Amino acid sequence: MQKSKEANWLQKMQFKHPLLIAGPCSAETEEQVLKIAHQLKESDSTILRAGIWKPRTRPGNFEGVGAIGLKWMQQARSETGLKLAIEVANKDHVEQALKADIDVLWIGARSTVSPFIVQEIADALQGTDKIVLVKNPVNPDISLWMGALERLQKANINNLGAIHRGFSTYHKTKYRNNPEWQLAIDFQNHFPNVPLILDPSHMGGRRDLIFDLSQTGMDLNYDGLMIETHTTPDQAWSDAAQQITPQRFLEITAQLRVRNEHASNRDFHIKISKLRKQIDEIDAHILSNLGNRMKIADEIGHLKRIENVTILQKERWNEILERMKEAGATQNLSENFITELFKAIHQESIEHQQNTIQQTSK
Ligand code: PEP
Ligand code: MN
User: Fold this and answer.
1) Which of 140, 243, 329, 353 could form a disulfide with 167 if both were Cys (CB 3.0 to 4.6 A apart)?
2) For the chain, which domains are there?
3) pTM metric for this prediction
4) Residues enclosing ligand 1, CB less than 6 A?
5) Whose CA is nearest to atom 1 of ligand 1?
6) Residues 204/176, Cβ–Cβ less than 8 Å
7) How much distance in Å is there from the Cα of 278 to the middle of ligand 2?
8) Nearest C-alpha to atom 6 of ligand 1 is from which residue?
9) What gap in Å lies between CA 164 and CA 196, rounded to an integer?
């Protein structure tokens, strides 16, 4: 991603690259916050995160320890020197966070979807020089994400960043929140000077996905990572499955291939990874379209069976092939390629229909 030359808060405040934010999903006890902070002190992490007020999708789950947690965070800062980051979701949270001199405030995915909430937070933060990070909204709509940034900019808040934590989908994928990398890339093109941070914890929802997601973030030139870490992840009061120990955090960040900012071929790697991600997404679409095509072929197989019609109808196949050759030429695809491709697709359709007919004739 092309960054503009203007210095942003990352450079002005001389944060290391990548910026590392780590800490538990939720502050649970004073002892837990301090223990995690001390273990993270040995890593490259410079900001300690913890949820104080937790937005839960369903009621009845742990909803955060509340304002008492701010004291534990302050204690952690004075013992370790780590800066502090918490989520704020209304003006009351903002007031308490500012009073506790929290360094970084983030707006969560469930708040970014609501222009009323974002405006309330922007008004409460008017003119602040605190760092304010905006998570992508739950749903894959970058205008809500952009709108939140714009509301904060209008409130004269300049140290802004964005956090990509993935998007909800109706169909389950291997991710808790689907990355939709292209959306984050588009978002970045609108705000080239706003640092972009990846949250592989909420994106993956599983600790074994964190390394690969983080590496993709580095390959796509993200500015930082926010990773949930807990001394005893399995016992965490929220998001247990996705948290990792501070030791594992250290290993992961040490193994990441971080592109050298000034190497002459850095741009090459960034561009090629971006293009490959696009290709991967297109390939996934091609496959799911082919799967859908075969389902329709199966339905046709049922109809042919009922009407006692042959699977192969030569005119129909020739007509498809001619039409695709013509359409292919307009897309700069050779006749030979189109013929081979559609022969293979047609062959697969025939096999599907054969299966259908044989099954229904049993
Ligand atoms: C969190 O960071 O703990 C959190 C609640 O994340 P999100 O807003 O991305 O769901
Ligand atoms: Mn969490």
Assistant:
1) 140
2) 9-255 (3.20.20.70), 266-361 (1.20.59.10)
3) 0.75
4) 25, 51, 55, 108-110, 135, 165, 202
5) 25
6) yes
7) 28
8) 108
9) 7
